[in-house]
């Protein structure tokens, strides 16, 4: 696998977030040559357009991190049938001020896990609309809505053998997507 740098944006701030566990487990499935880094969103201030001309240091650092990656993996829960506010806040910061959209042309994928039988389907659908507006080519198929059930994760934190190949196949498809669509200098 070609060397790829992928940012992971987890849409949950909860300490024991299923989605953070999923992100960590995905990292363990990655082939050699893929470097994942977490782009943390919990320390970003609430977006306020009045601050566009003097963005907080945390925003500048976040945008600088995103600008260096080949792809972005969004790992998000579903809150009230949509994306978490903290995730939308990070997306807004990255796209502003007008004309300085750090997300543009970076290939992306969305995955999520939830106790709900429909997983994170509605959140992912809403996120796809936002990512389209941000000009992020987003992996359309296969979609990955995971249900958190007992035994999904092993005691070590890895994805159980029963689901590992399924998630690994999706990850491989995402990495091909990034390779085919990453920004060219």
Automatic annotation (TrEMBL):
Matches recorded under InterPro entries: Flavoprotein-like_sf, FMN_Rdtase-like_dom, NAD(P)H-dep_reductase
Signal peptide: none
Domain NADPH-dependent FMN reductase-like: 5-146
GO MF term list: FMN binding; oxidoreductase activity
Cellular component, GO, one term: cytosol
Cross-referenced SUPFAM superfamilies: Flavoproteins
Name of the protein in its database record: Chromate reductase
Source superkingdom: Bacteria
